[in-house]
What we know:
Helices cover 61% and strands 0% of the residues of chain A.
Amino acid sequence: MSDDRRSAPLIAPPPVVALAGWLLPGLGYWLIGQRVRGVTIGLTIIVMYVSGLLIAGVRVIDVPTYNEKGQKLHNASLTNEIRAKPWSIAQVMAGPMAVASGAASIWAAEPDETTGQPRGVRTHVRIPEIATLYTAVAGMLNLLAIIDAASRAGREAK
Amino acid sequence: MSFLPTVLVSNFIAQSSSVDMSYIPFLRPLPIWNYWYLLLFPLCAGVAIVYKSIKCRHMSQVPWEASVIALWIVLGMSGAALALAIVVGYVAK
Lengths: 158, 93
């Protein structure tokens, strides 16, 4: 691997780089011309997040204001729900794939029409704890990458 | 020390005996109840790769630097686990 600092044809402003980094992990670096860094970080974060879902299923994603049966809690306060599920903040930092897996988690929590059981199983042993760690750490690392890419974009613009 | 997890897992399996627990990707968990700690190694590797990709000036430095820090994370966690096991063993006496 050689030095990946290539001159980008157009320097994207830091907010655009940050938003791109959230939309697709590593895309922020790609926009500022650091493609090897972007691909390495993006692929690692995506693999880590998807691994978490493969280890314990989509139900490791705890969506605030939804209960364990996938029903919307209309009277629940969002701040109280986030306080009860703080790892959801870290998970959502992984980008739209976190939002999509949250929707899948709600779907998997709903009972199947034929069996009456939830579509996805939620266990309370160590495996889901590790899987939650995978998804939350992936989100936190993406936040770190977003901040770094935006900061580099700011320095390049000067 | 491996008694407690085994009891928990067997209780879990007994309680969920009516539920089919065969692995279905994204819907049911991997049946690796007694080997969960092995999952910490890829996590350490991922953290090390991303951290060093952010930190290193040149990407050519990342493979070596990430390997070293991944090893340090594993050693640190093993040390912490050993220390905790000694403390728990001492308190349990």
